[in-house]
Amino acid sequence: MLARVMSRPLAPPAMLLPALIVMLVSGVLPAAFVAYYSVHDTFAGNSFVWVGADWYVSVLSSPEFWWALARSLGFAALVLLIEIPLGIYIALRLPPSGPLASLLIVLLAIPLLAPLIVVGYLWKVMSAPAIGLLPAAAGLLGLGYDMNNPVVVWATLLLMDAWHWTSLVVLLCYAGLRAIPEDYYRAARIDGAGAWAVFRHIQLPRLHLVLLIAILLRLMDSLMIYAEAYVVTRGGPGVSTTFLSHELIQTATIEFDLGQGGAMSIIYLSLVLLISWLFFALIVPGRGKAS
Predict the structure, then answer these.
(1) How many beta carbons lie within 10 A of that of residue 183, not counting itself?
(2) How many helical (H) and strand (E) elements, i.e. helices and strands, does the chain have?
(3) Phi and psi of 49, rounded to 5°?
(4) How many C-beta atoms surround the C-beta of residue 247 within 10 A?
(5) Range list of β-strands (E), 92-209
(6) In which region does residue 46 sit, left (phi positive, over 0), alpha (psi from -120 to 50) or beta (all else)?
(7) Tag placement on the chain: N or C end, fewer CB within 10 Å?
């Protein structure tokens, strides 16, 4: 009898139960606590006074919040402009199959395995004035490399992010390219289509959904960048690389302003979800309403 019961397949709700429990513990409950803090003022960590939307008004009226948001949006836009075309190009240049293709895929996946804090310290060493590879390479090219220059710092962060995450775009695009039936290429060769025509009319349309996933993942992740950027720049020089995530951590954990930090967290999360949803709705017409 017990064997018969254990051999029965689980119903779909039961199969989802472990994932729902993990989401509840790791996502929903912390978000509920943050939302609670965002509408209360706290004293001595255990006394809470209802303040309603006061913290939200305070955050939205702060120039520092809007400047940090602008820097985060600018960084996310530059990341997408660099990593998406570069990832597509590399995926197109990879061998379609064979041992060399397997080796290159493994090598490309290595940066993705590095923890964020490790990536930050690696690039902090690489950008160090006396021993870093980046200042040495810039010197060989006759260029100056000064981490007190905001342009240099932004270029370093973009280079770091491209090294870390372009491989994700490459792997997604490579998988999408391998899923295209060979019959499409045979028909293109019969018609005498060149490489650009094949890319434009066959490969790019078939990569549409793959690129949507890649762009959404990179958009959300770049909007929430914190650890590696903070290790390299500490938000400087000045506040030139103080992104919204840095502003949030500064408010909530260093200044220990839990109410304002909670309100900023809710606004931050809402903005990331709204931007991602708008992007999805624009790229895939009709699906935004359907969802």
Answers:
(1) 8
(2) 17, 2
(3) -125, 130
(4) 24
(5) none
(6) alpha
(7) N
Q: Which of 75, 276, 88, 225 is nearest to 168 (CA)?
A: 88
Strand partners for 48: 42
Name the nearest CA neighbour of 116 among 229, 26, 223. Answer: 229
- The pLDDT tens digits for 232-286 are 998 888 889 999 888 888 888 887 888 888 899 999 888 888 887 887 777 665 5
Q: Among residues of the chain, what percentage have pLDDT more than 90?
A: 31
Task: Provide the token pair at 9.
Answer: 């397949």
Number of residues that make up the chain: 291
Q: What is the pLDDT of residues 207-220, one digit of tens each?
A: 888 888 898 889 88
Give the predicted TM-score (pTM) of the model: 0.85
Q: Do 241 and 229 meet the contact criterion of CB atoms below 8 Å apart?
A: yes
In this structure, the dihedral spanned by the alpha carbons of residues 53, 54, 55 and 57, taken in order and rounded to 10 degrees, is 90
Residue 55: alpha-carbon gap to chain centroid: 27
CA atoms of 185 and 280, how far apart (whole Å):
30
Query: Which amino acid is present at 280?
Result: F
